[in-house]
Recover the amino acids of this structure.
């Protein structure tokens, strides 16, 4: 009789984060009766903040965010998956990456997690509310401001999301942030972005500055006050029948220049294996199962997941069940900006959003905001592993 293998996993607390992992673990155990996989969950904020090094001490499987890739490469707290998954399998994954999702976990010659979930900020709407008020989807920043003047617009305003949207506006004005070691973005672009962003933010309900994307979508579906969100990490769950009180439609974002849509900052999650895992081969088998096109297009999606495999994003049935969420937002994923992943980048990400959020809420001097961000950035660049 085979020895029983017990694997413990940690993911994040949302239907999109937990349910597909539980469902795939259950099915994998049915196919491999000697394997038990249990999943625990943590909050979205803990998911962004909590060190994967500490989690890897306690769990065999980790659902992680790609900015941890540089940290993982330094600490070796998770294993390089390219040592455990076949070259053929990985080639298929790379060729079917949703935007730069695959590349986002590839760092210093190794793949540190498999992209099982793909996301970027996209636009969301309540078509019923817009129709009721005789309004169209905004196409330009001016359209967006006009809709915000009616009190119908929200965006996620907690620090991490504010920073990601700052990146989005920089990219959309033609300058990707964090491209040299001295400054986050040029003073000229930085001032322009902050002023635009502040103009929009000044028309927002202050409650939005305490909301992450999930809380924005809950507010949009539980009440009938918010008709449009211009950018927040997309959640296909809210576009599925029966998930929420009202169904959201998701779209590509507005254009600043009338030609090119906003370029947002890539998100999504990857499945990683702890270096402390004692059943590496079996854990890798499970990772490969979860990331396979067949699982991603069926069991993973149908259990609430937001796939990371391109075959699922193009799948007719997946799109039929989600108001064409995947087809409609794929262009945004394909052009999304890959944010910094160097060791130390998490320090910057954890602190810079506070500076921008404070400015959005209270106003202030743009030069001072940019100076404070640059100081945090330079400090993050100089961080060494203790």
């Amino acid at each position: 009789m085979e020895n029983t293998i017990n694997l413990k996993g940690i993911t994040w607390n949302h239907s999109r984060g937990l349910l597909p992992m539980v469902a795939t673990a259950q099915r994998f155990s049915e196919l491999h009766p000697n394997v038990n996989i249990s999943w625990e969950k943590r909050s979205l904020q803990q998911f962004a903040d909590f060190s994967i090094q500490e989690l890897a001490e306690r769990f065999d499987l980790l659902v992680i965010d790609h900015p941890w890739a540089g940290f993982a490469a330094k600490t070796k707290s998770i294993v390089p998956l390219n040592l455990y998954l076949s070259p053929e399998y990985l080639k298929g994954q790379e060729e079917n990456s949703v935007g730069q999702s695959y590349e986002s976990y590839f760092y210093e010659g190794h793949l540190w997690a498999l992209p099982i979930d793909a996301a970027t900020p996209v636009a969301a709407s309540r078509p019923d509310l817009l129709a009721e008020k005789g309004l169209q989807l905004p196409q330009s920043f001016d359209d967006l401001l006009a809709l915000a003047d009616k009190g119908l617009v929200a965006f996620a305003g907690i620090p991490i999301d504010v920073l990601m949207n700052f990146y989005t506006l920089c990219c959309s004005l033609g300058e990707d942030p964090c491209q040299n070691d001295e400054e986050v973005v040029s003073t000229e672009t930085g001032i322009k972005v902050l002023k635009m962003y502040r103009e929009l933010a000044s028309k927002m309900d202050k409650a939005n500055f305490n909301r992450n994307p999930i809380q924005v979508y809950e507010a949009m579906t539980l009440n009938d006050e918010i008709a449009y969100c211009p950018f927040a990490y997309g959640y296909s769950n809210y576009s599925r029948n029966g998930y929420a009180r009202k169904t959201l439609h998701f779209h590509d974002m507005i254009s600043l220049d009338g030609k090119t849509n906003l370029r947002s900052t890539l998100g999504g999650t990857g499945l990683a294996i702890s270096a402390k895992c004692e059943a590496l081969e079996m854990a890798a088998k499970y990772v490969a199962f979860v990331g396979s096109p067949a699982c991603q297009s069926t069991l993973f999606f149908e259990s609430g997941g937001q796939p990371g495999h391109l075959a699922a994003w193009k799948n007719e049935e997946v799109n039929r069940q989600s108001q064409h969420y995947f087809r409609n937002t794929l262009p945004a994923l394909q052009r999304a900006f890959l944010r910094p992943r160097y060791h130390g980048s998490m320090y910057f990400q954890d602190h810079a959003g506070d500076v921008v959020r404070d400015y959005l809420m209270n106003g202030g001097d743009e030069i001072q905001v940019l100076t404070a961000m640059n100081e945090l950035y330079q400090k993050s660049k100089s961080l060494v592993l203790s």
